[in-house]
Amino acid sequence: MKIQVQKIKLRLEHSFRLSRGTTNERENVVVEIDGHYGEGAPLYYLGQTPDDIYNAAKGILASFDFGRDFEYLRANPWPKELIGFPRPALCAVSQAIYGYLAAQDGRPLFEYLGLSEPKGIPTSFSFGISKPGEIETFLRAKPDFPAYKLKLGSEYDLETVKRFRELSSAQLRLDVNGGWNYNEAIDKIEALADYNIEFIEQPLAAGHYEELDKLTSSASIPIFVDEDMNRFSNLIELYGKAHGINVKLSKCGLLFDTLRIIQYAKQLGMKVLLGCMVESSIGITAALHLATLADYIDLDGNLLINNDPFDGASTVMGIMNLQNRNGLGAIRK
Prior knowledge:
Elements lengths: L2 E16 L2 E13 L2 E5 L9 H13 L3 H10 L11 H18 L4 H4 L8 E2 L1 E4 L7 H7 L5 E5 L5 H11 L3 E5 L6 H10 L5 E5 L7 H10 L4 E3 L6 H7 L5 E4 L1 H4 L2 H13 L3 E4 L6 H8 L7 E2 L12 E2 L2 E3 L2 E3 L9 E2 L1
């Protein structure tokens, strides 16, 4: 059995600016088990590094007895002694393991997990923080998506949204990545009320629950959280303080933890956005298997890079489909 852990550098097609900085490259961790892959993206905003995730994934795999543990995992939860590892490492290992198990059963991963097949799933495409004059160029390069996400957190926020709406009637989502203070958020949300915005993600810095509660109660646009939503326990803390959550596999860790978070959020009446980090086609394809559980999809991480070493889910004019493959369904090019 071939078991391998490696780091891969992903080059962004264009510099990508967020409220907390600009990036041109990301380094993720890939786990391989006999040609079946999993991917974990470090949570840089929590201080994680690629080396942290690489070493953790190696540690998890070193603790496995693959003959015994594969059979155990078919019918039992993940071993409790592994839960303390960083979630992106658990994410990469669990994707590879369950992709392997699904392929051994001759089934795609969604079917192995007891989910419906994701067919014709619409995704949004994200633009980094932009000046108003850049929006037309960006839309010309990516003209056919049913929805777009604009990153905000600059002095150009309102002008950029206005310019977008002059050029496009597509669904529009906004993501501030914690870049506004409370008073700024109040003023800008009021000013954005007439621009037909689906929702605004993470307007305030993570952990400001009291201000988030007040903002959500008064906002005319639905408020979602991303950086505030990192583990199952956050759902309890966020209940009633946000209209929805952004669920990303690398943040949640184990595949079954991701499922549990989505299912419980829906029970609480919260909307679910299934999102991603900058990832290769491994992580994007893994997430697509869960897409029928979500209300909104933002799986464009592999479309932002120009050196994807893997082939997986297809995206044509903003519509996503799986390839006809068993297991997770991502293969090396």
